Amino acid sequence: MLDQIIRDYREAVFDTDGEGAVAVAENALNNGIAAEDIVFKVVIPVIEEMMAVINRDPDANLAQHFMTAQIAATVTEKMLVHFRQPPASQGKVVIGTSAGDLHSLGKRIVMGCLKSLMIEVVDLGVNVTPERFVDAAVEHDAQVIAISSMMIHTARGENGSLAVRRLLQERGLESRVKLVVGGAPYRFDPELYRTVGADAWAEDGITAGRVIQDLIRAVTRP
Amino acid sequence: MTPLQRLIAAVKGEPADRIPIFCNLLDQGAQELGMSLEHYYSNGEHVAEGQLRMRERYGHDNVWSLFYVGKEAELFGCRKILFASDGPPNVAQFVIQDYDDIEKLEVPVDVAAHPAFLETAKCLAILRREVGGKVPICAYLTGSMTFPALLMGMDRWMELLLTGPADLRELLLAKCSEFFRREIAAYRAAGADVLLYSNPFGCTYFVGRKRFREQSLPWMERDLAEGGVDGVVYYCGMSPFANIVGEVIDRLKIGAYYFGPDDDIAEAKAIVADRGLTCGVINDIKMLSWSEQQVRDEVRRIIGAGKGSGRFLFGTGVMPYAIPEANIRAMLDEAYRLGRWE
């Protein structure tokens, strides 16, 4: 039965059919499948499969990324209320757009993807100062700071990732907080993340889920 | 030969001294005039003066009437723009806050008379007086499928487009398309020669092929139906679109295509062929870090791939403020040299 559910859910996600995906998950729940199984055996494997497919598929597009993340986040949220006990967090991320940048699409895709992977997300919104990124990471004990920038001056500027890196150094936080960046300028220059002092970058919102997962695993806790 | 004659020759595939070279230096005008970007963009005289001085300094083949992309949102009532000291401004207040606002949204009846267009009109008048008929005067217009992102934010537009109520989506697109038709008429009347039709949703980097065919193409047809495609240049915000350009040519009959830096220019040129002007565009984000030699190599690669027997233009994106002047000069020197026809 679970195999059929996985097939139906995968088909809905690949067709970016949000309502269909929710219906598959809710039907499974009504048929006695545990919400935990739906998330860990259906939702997460399918989004991981989508990450791999999107990475390989030259025709993958922004709309597909957006819908994939939204569907995964919606279904996960609906299932979480039925969990017997709160799920163990897979890690924590603070996320926002760099200072001076008000573009939130990329951030929203990443957040949807992370939520479905059971990674806790603290959304700082748009136009976030470097101090706020670092303070929030400390306050929430996050392993990763994720900064989205759509414009080259907000990606490279003195109030973006470069300043966050400097603050992490000054406060001795580099071993416990990793820095990931993403957004259009990084696609046009894949080496730019090094220039701005980040530990990693992600080409798109869905790939960001995997990159952040890897960074969380790599963090040495004090 | 004037830059405008050079451009017309390239479009028609006729002989010229060299290929046209477009260099889009917008924010640099403020630096040239020694003022902040916010002050610079507050007055059309500044922008015109900045454009004329940039062209005088570098000798490229175009000037712009574009201030910043968010200026179009001001025509719909946006009153808050977030300025920066080192890059283009952002729209900081979205006119559409919730779906109810879509029905209330009023399309400006007379774009040319709109207070938010006055500085643009002033800039165009100066450019027309100083270089009209000699240098192509460019204008930037956002297509109806993309315009809602300026009014409600890209993520909320994506949500409405993909999952929202179809009637509201169509209503918003109809209003944006109506606005586009009025706006392009206003720019033409004010003297713009080159009308950059910016529409990232007109490529499959943003939406899948099915949605591109079922929504993007029909809306683009509506945008352009009334005023025609004279002077229109197809552009997808630096995203690649060679994979669908054949369909765009067949349906829209636009005469010029401003490709993304990731497009294979030889492939794009082969598809466009003698049906239009192919524009090969350099990755100007990388120009921030490239050496002068790397810039020259890239110019050589692009012109080598596209120049062929003509109908080719070399261009840039919106050049970042921080590109070293030496790299701008290296790019243009190489383009002027390699773009020459013997």
Molecular structure report:
The complex is a heterodimer of chains A (222) and B (342). With 222 residues, chain A is of the alpha/beta class. Chain A has eleven helices and five strands. Chain A has two domains: 2-80, Methyltransferase, Methionine Synthase (B12-binding Domains), Chain A, domain 1 (Orthogonal Bundle), CATH 1.10.1240; 92-218, Cobalamin-binding domain (Rossmann fold, 3-Layer(aba) Sandwich). Helices cover 57% and strands 10% of the residues of chain A. Chain A has a five-stranded parallel beta sheet, with helices on both faces. In chain A, helix 1 crosses helix 3 (35-56) and helix 6 packs across helix 8 (161-170). Chain A is globular, with a radius of gyration of 18 Å. Chain B has 15 helices and ten strands. Chain B has an eight-stranded parallel beta sheet. In chain B, strands 3-4 form a two-stranded antiparallel ribbon. In chain B, helix 12 (245-252) links the parallel strand 7 (232-235) and strand 8. Chain B starts with a helix and ends with a helix. The interface between A and B is medium-sized, with 30 and 33 residues.
